[in-house]
Amino acid sequence: MKVFRCQSCKSAIYFENRFCGACGHDLGYLPVAGILSALEPEGDYFVALTPEKPKVRFCQNAGPDACNWMIPADQEDPFCLACQHNRMIPDLNLNNNLQHWRDMEIAKHRLFYSLMALRLPIQTRTQNPEHGLVFDFLEEAPDLGTPKVLTGHDEGVIVINLNEADDVKRAKFRAAMHEPYRTLLGHFRHEVGHYFWDVLIRDKGNIDACREVFGDERADYAEALKKHYENGPPADWQEHFISTYATSHPWEDFAETWAHYLHIVDTLETAAAFGLRIHPTFTKEDSLHVEIDFNPYRVNSIDDLVTAWLPLTFTMNNLSRSMGEKDLYPFVLTQPVIEKLGFIHHMITDARSAG
To answer: 19 exposed, middle or buried (CB, 10 Å; 0-12, 13-18, 19+)?
Structure first.
């Protein structure tokens, strides 16, 4: 994620901000330009304080404070480029659904920031009625008679259980599943990996190449998950997979690796925006020294990402431990995992080149 500043007073601002805490200007994100802009009201619209000074208005989901993205003033669709992909949202009058949905939207908008930065092909259901990308945010409330909600993906439909936005429940899920990491943003990045398996692997004729790296996805999925939950991962899983869940089936291996690719590029962009230089005084070992001064969304090789990522995560984990927390990035990138990340990098680069 880039670091943004208010065009009016030059103060630092966050991606999710609706107004500048220093000067009070309204703020809105211009997704095509990739800019969080200060706004000046003009009648029923706003003028963004960028060199082009476009006339814009807020996405309709700004009303319940669930979005700060802008749309052109004359756009007929009332939703922004991210919210056009919503199909179902929860009943906002029940329980804590409104706040949980807002948290969902924060994660979803960060996901779309990355997908747009990578210039990946994304279609709505209007553009592609059968396979366009849509989200269903569903509440699981047994006391209200609602059915069990399973987070997952099916032909472009991504379902997210609203309970994942409850910090306490999510922590219980993580403990029950013996996971070292579980976040809303992680869910979005993982599930959209399944969508892009369809788009970039299945639909682009890359299945054979993908099988060589991740294995044969024709293995019975339900049976594979059953075995995984009954027997757990193989003893040497960490030598070949990014997570235990990745061992369950080639589809899950791809989606888990995809999610980590997005973790890496977005975190490295944040580090670059802050001008991070990692030069530990305790060692001259080259692998722990790096200047993160490049755009990770546009590198040519996966090696460029990994070379910067390893010292950055070593630093982040040490800082996290200093605060009494567990490792911020509790994963190991072995050579087989790096090769899988490289395959995904290649697929994304090819998709961007194809336009």
So the answer is: middle
Could you tell me which residues come within 8 angstroms of residue 24 by beta carbon, excluding any fewer than 6 positions away? none
- CA-to-CA distance for 7 and 314, rounded, in angstroms? 35
Is residue 210 a part of any domain in this protein?
no
Q: Is 306 exposed, middle or buried (0-12, 13-18, 19+ CB in 10 A)?
A: middle
Please state the rounded mean pLDDT for residues 60-87.
97
257 falls within a domain = yes
What is the reported pTM?
0.96
Other beta carbons less than 10 A from residue 83's beta carbon = 23
Query: Do 236 and 355 belong together in one domain?
Result: yes
Query: For residues 200 and 120, what is the distance between their CA atoms, to the nearest angstrom?
Result: 9
Report angle CA 39, 43, 45 to the nearest 5 degrees: 45
* Residue 285 clears pLDDT 90, i.e. is over it: no
Residue with tokens 């945010």: 137
Q: Is 263 found in the same domain as 334?
A: yes
Q: For the segment 4-28, what is each residue's pLDDT rounded down to a tens digit?
A: 999 999 999 999 999 999 999 999 9
Rounded CA separation 217/219 (Å): 5
User: What distances in angstroms separate CA 256 from CA 29, 144, 251, 270, one per listed residue?
Assistant: 29, 33, 9, 21
Rounded to the nearest 5 degrees, what angle is found at the Cα of 26, between the Cα atoms of 23 and 31?
125
Beta bridge partners of residue 201, listed in sequence order: none
Question: Residue 60 above 80 pLDDT?
Answer: yes
Residue 260 CA neighbour count, 13 Å, CB half: 29
Query: From the centroid of its chain, how far is CA 280?
Result: 30
Rounded distance between C-alpha atoms, residue 165 and residue 101, angstroms: 7
Residue 354: the pLDDT is 80
**Does residue 21 lie in a domain region?**
yes
Each residue's pLDDT tens digit, 316-343: 999 999 999 999 999 999 999 999 999 9
**Look-up of token digits 């509440």:** 139
